[in-house]
Amino acid sequence: MRPILMKGHERPLTFLRYNRDGDLLFSCAKDHTPTVWYADNGDRLGTYRGHNGAVWSCDVSRDSARLITGSADQTAKLWDVSTGRELFSFRFDAPARSVEFAIGDALAVITTDNFMDHTPTVQVKRIAEDVEDQTEESALVITGIKGRINRAVWGPLNRTIITAGEDATIRIWDSETGKLLKESDKESGHQKTISSLSKSPDWSHFITGSLDKSAKLWDSRTLTLIKTYVTERPVNAVDISPTHDTVVLGGGQDAMNVTMTDRRAGKFEAKFYHKILQEEIGGVKGHFGPINALAFNPDGRSFSSGGEDGYVRLHHFDSDYFNIKI
User: Fold this and answer.
1) Name one Pfam family in it (predicted).
2) CATH number of the domain encompassing residue 221
């Protein structure tokens, strides 16, 4: 499996997202400039210029017409995917971290960090079809979570919002009323910061990665713990294969410890686990720093990883991967 190295960012990667068709890959980094690439050959298609801080996450609409990004410059921005034009900017009192469109792209959920005397929030914004009608008004604001919210995503049929972050607790909220419906169990749940969260293609279950050196698979409706994948390093990024019973985990040590070890000792590889049996089935090395972002292509034939080293690595699976009896 020979990776394609994509160098377009000057700073560490933070997030990767494929569009629904799987032909475009969007990358976010600490260098202020989200970038779009062709997903098959890794050619850079363009950049989105306008943020003045690290860009923490992004999402692309179902028709690949619009991109939304969340940044440390205290804004979330809507972009025209094909022209790179900024369409609208949602302003906040704190850095915007996690962004995601709902099914239908008429709503977006955005989280803001704890900053100065502002507590973290989860906010739902209505996304107007015509950008002229777009407003900054929030349809819902959820507060009361202690510690940074690293990810907020929509649950099945947009009925719920699932949040996870620094306090190691996963919560499910009613997306209409903002009422807390479920909370992960302290015993069976994560013991340290949840760094990442990724949903299955049908949204029925999701996986979380944590600094407690594990990833866990959960039921999206009941928040029942289904599986746990144990590894020997903090997990920064996770994803679920859309076609195989595999999950991928990536991580490494904290950035401040990286310079003291060589790259092999740093364990900077994407590790694959059998989703059902919870066993490690393989790994892909290559990054010269911790892996901060992972994403499977929706067709299941490739995946990409983004690291502290500023590179995006695009890996196409060879035929052996598809012969795994899963």
Assistant:
1) EIF3I
2) 2.130.10.10
